[in-house]
């Protein structure tokens, strides 16, 4: 069973580097979690290096702009690695004619890349950053379109492996849910974000650039998603801190508190064993 902690500073002696998730840990897409921001600022003040590692399909500059908009203090991180950053390499390696499936706000993902964005019928590959309108649509609305791509053998590059994300007090579907449907239909997906290795390799490269030599055994990954943050950390050799009050909270909340027995049963059913858990990052 994971050990419950109440303060991030309890782990100061265990970690030099923190790989921290963003959505669900630092903010909910609308408001920053001020205790989490202050916890990361305090960690940096103690000499720890904070690399934010997020499945946002936009390059880091887009995440920083969102931070500015909703009020996340820039002093809470040293560097940011996004799924969009590492997905650009997959796009470079893909066929040139690509259909972009996602909202216009994500177009910065392909800025400067030598590709042709084409209509679905002319595509040799698909780049998916999300649903066009995740406020009202569901993955099922895309079944026919994706089945057509699968029938032609097109690879689908998923720029955001998250299935859902918090937006305010709601959960909205992400590109990962479309990738799951594509696999269900028999299609090929290509993914570089969490839980896959490329985003962790890049995050550790950023940490080494800041600190010099980094001992992976003294690196902790923090997140609220079991299939992305926690599974990715464990599969890539990192201890993990699970944040309970994220996207899975409905599975084990009892009123306003976490039922630890239900939490442990949930983690066991998901096949993950983080070293620690916290209600909130604080």
TrEMBL record:
<dbReference type="Pfam" id="PF13242">
    <property type="entry name" value="Hydrolase_like"/>
</dbReference>
<dbReference type="GO" id="GO:0016787">
    <property type="term" value="F:hydrolase activity"/>
</dbReference>
<dbReference type="Pfam" id="PF13344">
    <property type="entry name" value="Hydrolase_6"/>
</dbReference>
<dbReference type="InterPro" id="IPR006356">
    <property type="entry name" value="HAD-SF_hydro_IIA_hyp3"/>
</dbReference>
<keyword id="KW-0378">Hydrolase</keyword>
<dbReference type="InterPro" id="IPR023214">
    <property type="entry name" value="HAD_sf"/>
</dbReference>
<protein>
    <submittedName>
        <fullName>TIGR01459 family HAD-type hydrolase</fullName>
    </submittedName>
</protein>
<dbReference type="InterPro" id="IPR036412">
    <property type="entry name" value="HAD-like_sf"/>
</dbReference>
<dbReference type="InterPro" id="IPR006357">
    <property type="entry name" value="HAD-SF_hydro_IIA"/>
</dbReference>
